[in-house]
Amino acid sequence: MGDQFQASKPIYMQIVSKVQQQIIRGDLQAGSKLPSVREMAIQSGVNPNTIQRTYSELERTGIVLTKRGQGTFVTEEHGVIAALKREMQDEVIHSFVNSMKELGVPPEQLIQKLEDYLEGTS
């Protein structure tokens, strides 16, 4: 019923990331309504206050907007969604490259391993 969460990161931030991923994948379209705080709390298996904090954080970043009496909606500003997508891609690449550097993989080998993986030969 509820999601699995990591102890190393606040739950509300994990839910923020999950919603952001749903938006950039297109699972949640621009202008679409998010579940109510109560519904999302039940789906996620968390306290409604956690979801309220999640929605507040998403609103602070401009990804969603709350319309009084109507609910919370994904922004219709495609530039905001495109910027979020680029930011999340950069974070993943940064994390990957840093992890490979920590393993002592030189840049040339990293590129080759990535090319091999993408070609399905790794």
Keywords:
single chain, 122 residues, mainly alpha, 2 strands, elongated
Can you put this structure into words, describing what you see?
By secondary structure, the protein is mainly alpha-helical. It contains five helices and two strands. A hairpin with a 3-residue loop joins strand 1 and strand 2. Helix 1 packs across helix 3, helix 1 crosses helix 4 and helix 2 packs across helix 3.
Task: Give me the secondary-structure topology.
Elements: H1 11-25, H2 37-44, H3 48-60, E1 64-67, E2 71-74, H4 78-102, H5 107-119
Antiparallel strand pairs: 1-2
Helix pairs in contact: 1-3, 1-4, 2-3
In short:
By secondary structure, this protein is mainly α. 61% of the residues lie in helices and 7% in strands.
Distance between the termini: 36 Å
Bin the strand percentage: 5-15%
Count of runs of 4 or more consecutive helical residues: 5
Q: Give the strand order, joined by hyphens, for the main sheet.
A: 1-2
Low-confidence stretches: none
Structural class by sheet pairing and helices: mainly alpha
* Strand and helix order: HHHEEHH
Integer-rounded radius of gyration = 18 Å
Shape, per Cα inertia axes: elongated
Number of strands: 2
Average pLDDT figure: 94
Largest sheet: 2 strands, antiparallel
Helical content, roughly? 55-70%
